[in-house]
């Protein structure tokens, strides 16, 4: 088979996908502590780590001044306690924007205003003030000619959902839909803004560790979970959570809205009952998440919508109330030392090595809904394979196949006419061969079996027309030599550690 050349734009899209610069990473800078470095030192720390996006929880003067001229993009927040005043008086909103935005912009690159935070769970019952407050802040931006560069939104928690499992059943709580959800989404659409979402797989895992695989929660190699509603396969809990929000928006006819993950993280320490907390798991979650984001691409439901994620949080904050975990989400200690090593940029990602899966331990928790009996094996041993997702359609498979055998560098000689694996001569079979070649060549790295949603990972050698793919590749691994030449080394798949 001869593989046709694709358009320049298509090749460029795959180039960005696999050169790991499509998604965006930011960090939340909270300050509920009495031992943090000065704002000036914090900005120096951000720049030294290559972090160019930060989200604040207020409009602190010292922080905004320190960020001036730094080229760091900033999201600021209007606190919940001001929602009432801002919603009722346009003059109050205008003065707030003048004082807290115009005074620093554009030297401080404020790109968004988070109006309130998780307002629907605010014990002071500020929900009905939210959309009017957002509208008045936007009106103030219009009056100051800042509305085209500064977006207005509000972070919601996943508790705003009535249903989130499976993802395809995602829906908002009925009592929120008419009063606030629909008006808010309409406002975001009209102003060209996006929905801010705070999502924490840690909480879902902590509450359901008997049915959720830790590997699934930490972006580590796992068999995945098939959504019984839409047939899509998920390999991370966070993506399943985000698609539940997308599904909820879709049910209200807001398919066109973008989403930004304004908070997500994992605690490096917790109380005895906080299952899953710990430094190793925090490093795995945040590090693998960064890799996932920088590898590009979106969720299974929105594969072309690159992820933008803000990690929570920059520092451990010693004055936060609640369980031990609340004070241990930080990526850095107050003395600016890293709590654990993770990358923040593409260059750092090239040098980063993730923690081995479970360090040889076997994770016994099954993933609900991932197999015919509702459970899966989560052992870290055994081979994994990349196969075509037939549900994406032949055209998308063909485009991905062209890339894999072209710029992707997969070894496709065996699926040429007359070669050993030419038959069965179907796009699905050939795509599976090429995808698996690319996947193995790239050491089965996270994101190397995606192809814009046209492929997924399996842990058992599939039968049917995938046989040729597996019989050639299941016992080999591609290893780069020092001089850049690829060779093959025999390996028993039962001894592999992913």
UniProtKB/TrEMBL annotation:
Recorded protein name is glucan endo-1,3-beta-D-glucosidase
InterPro entries linked: GH, Glyco_hydro_17, Glyco_hydro_17_plant, X8
This protein's record includes keyword Signal:
yes
Question: Where are the stretches annotated Disordered?
Answer: 359-381
Q: Which UniProt keywords apply?
A: Cell membrane, Disulfide bond, Glycoprotein, Glycosidase, GPI-anchor, Hydrolase, Lipoprotein, Membrane, Plant defense, Signal
Q: Name the lineage.
A: Eukaryota, Viridiplantae, Streptophyta, Embryophyta, Tracheophyta
Subcellular location, in the record's words?
A: Cell membrane
Q: Which residues form the X8 domain?
A: 384-470
EC number(s) per entry: 3.2.1.39
Coiled-coil spans are: none
User: Which GO terms of the cellular component aspect does the record hold?
Assistant: plasma membrane; plasmodesma; side of membrane
Q: Give the Gene3D superfamilies listed for this entry.
A: 1.20.58.1040, Glycosidases
Q: Which reaction does it catalyse?
A: Hydrolysis of (1->3)-beta-D-glucosidic linkages in (1->3)-beta-D-glucans
Instruction: Tell me which domain of life the UniProt entry assigns to the organism this sequence originates from.
Output: Eukaryota
| Membrane-spanning residues | none
Per its record, what are the GO molecular function terms?
glucan endo-1,3-beta-D-glucosidase activity
Q: How does it sit in the membrane?
A: Lipid-anchor; GPI-anchor
Question: Any signal peptide, and if so, which residues?
Answer: 1-22
Q: Which PROSITE patterns match?
A: GLYCOSYL_HYDROL_F17
**UniProt GO BP:** carbohydrate metabolic process; defense response
Please note every region of biased composition (Low complexity).
369-381
Protein family per UniProt: Belongs to the glycosyl hydrolase 17 family.
């Amino acid at each position: 088979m001869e593989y046709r050349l694709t358009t320049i734009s298509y090749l460029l899209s795959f180039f960005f996908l696999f050169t790991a610069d499509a998604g965006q990473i930011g960090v939340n800078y909270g300050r509920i502590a009495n031992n943090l470095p000065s704002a000036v030192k914090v900005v120096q720390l951000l720049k030294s780590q290559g972090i160019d996006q930060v989200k604040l929880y207020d409009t602190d003067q010292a922080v905004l001044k320190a960020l001036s001229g730094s080229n760091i993009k900033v999201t600021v927040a209007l606190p919940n306690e001001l929602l009432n005043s801002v919603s009722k008086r346009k003059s109050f909103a205008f003065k707030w924007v003048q004082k807290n935005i115009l005074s620093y912009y554009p030297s401080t690159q404020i790109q968004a205003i988070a109006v309130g935070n998780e307002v629907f769970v605010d014990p002071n019952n500020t929900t009905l003030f939210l959309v009017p407050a957002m509208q008045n802040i936007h009106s103030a931006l219009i009056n100051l000619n800042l509305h085209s560069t500064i977006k207005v939104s509000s972070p919601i928690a996943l508790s705003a959902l009535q249903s989130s499992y499976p993802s395809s059943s995602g829906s908002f709580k009925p009592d929120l839909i008419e009063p606030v959800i629909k008006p808010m989404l309409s406002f975001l659409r009209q102003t060209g803004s996006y929905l801010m979402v705070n999502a924490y797989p840690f909480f879902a895992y902590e509450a359901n560790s008997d049915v959720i695989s830790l590997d699934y929660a930490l972006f580590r190699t796992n068999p995945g979970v098939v959504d019984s509603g839409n047939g899509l396969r998920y390999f991370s809990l966070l993506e399943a959570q985000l698609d539940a929000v997308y599904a909820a928006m879709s049910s209200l006819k807001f398919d066109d809205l973008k989403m930004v993950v304004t908070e997500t993280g994992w605690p490096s320490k917790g109380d005895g009952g906080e299952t899953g907390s710990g430094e190793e798991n925090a490093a795995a979650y945040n590090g693998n998440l960064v890799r996932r984001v920088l590898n590009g691409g979106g969720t299974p439901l929105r594969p072309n919508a690159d992820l933008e994620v803000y990690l929570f949080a920059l520092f451990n904050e010693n004055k936060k109330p609640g369980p031990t975990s609340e004070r241990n989400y930080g990526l850095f200690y107050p003395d600016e030392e890293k709590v654990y090593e993770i990358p923040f940029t593409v260059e750092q990602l090239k040098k980063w090595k993730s923690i081995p899966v479970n360090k040889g331990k076997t994770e016994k928790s099954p993933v609900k809904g991932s197999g015919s009996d509702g459970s899966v094996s989560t052992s870290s041993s055994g081979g994994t394979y990349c196969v075509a997702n037939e549900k994406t359609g032949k055209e998308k498979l063909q485009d991905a196949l062209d890339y894999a055998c072209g710029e992707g560098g997969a070894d496709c000689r065996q699926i040429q006419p007359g070669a050993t694996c030419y038959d069965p001569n179907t796009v699905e079979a050939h795509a599976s061969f090429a995808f698996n070649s690319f996947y193995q060549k790239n050491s089965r790295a996270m994101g190397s079996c995606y192809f814009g949603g046209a492929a997924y990972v399996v842990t058992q050698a599939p039968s049917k027309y995938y046989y040729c793919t597996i019989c050639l590749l299941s016992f080999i691994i591609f290893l780069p030599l020092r001089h850049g030449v690829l060779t093959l080394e025999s390996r028993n798949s039962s001894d592999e550690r992913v």
